[in-house]
Amino acid sequence: LISIKEFGRIRRPFLGIRYLILNKKIKEKFNLPVEEGVLAVNEGAPGDFAVIPESPADKAGIREFDIITHCNKEQISEKRTLEDIMCDHEIGDEITLTVLRDGALLEKTIVLKEFQRV
């Protein structure tokens, strides 16, 4: 908790994606091509976004309905979620996400920023 001493608050890295963690049941329900990873999707509230505008994910080109399968080549799953993986990183770290979009695998590089309450 060095950030509390140095900055007076807990600082954490921010991607800017709202997502659903995939599993076999969700894969079947939504007819998705994979059962591990996360699906970028909004929560359905008015004005809600799957990818928050101007966030690191938005600037890297992540889109709603992208399936993120890996972070730095590590498989994202229910056992090791994207949030778990993010806990291993700090503000300013550069990460690479493997994204499945329309049947194609893409690599997106993102520099993590500090989470800021709006």
Radius of gyration from the alpha-carbon trace, in angstroms: 15 Å
Largest sheet: 6 strands, antiparallel
What separation lies between the terminal Cα atoms? 23 Å
Low-confidence stretches: none
Principal-axes geometry comes out as: globular
Structural class by SSE content = alpha+beta
Q: Count of helices?
A: 4
Overall strand count: 8
- Strand residue percentage: 25-35%
Helix share bin: 10-25%
Query: How do the SSEs run, as a string of H and E?
Result: HEEHEHEEHEEE
User: Mean pLDDT, rounded to whole units?
Assistant: 89
Descriptive report:
Strands 2, 3, 4, 5, 6 and 7 form a six-stranded antiparallel sheet that branches. This protein has 118 residues and is of the alpha+beta class. It contains four helices and eight strands. The two termini are 23 Å apart.
Question: How is this structure best summarized?
Answer:
The protein has 118 residues and is α+β, with helices and mostly antiparallel strands. It is built from four helices and eight strands.
Features:
two-stranded antiparallel ribbon; six-stranded antiparallel sheet; alpha+beta; 19% helix; 4 helices; 118 residues; 28% strand; globular
Task: Please describe the topology of this protein.
Elements: H1 2-7, E1 13-14, E2 19-21, H2 24-30, E3 38-40, H3 56-59, E4 67-71, E5 74-75, H4 82-86, E6 94-101, E7 104-111, E8 113-114
Antiparallel strand pairs: 1-8, 2-3, 3-4, 4-5, 4-6, 6-7
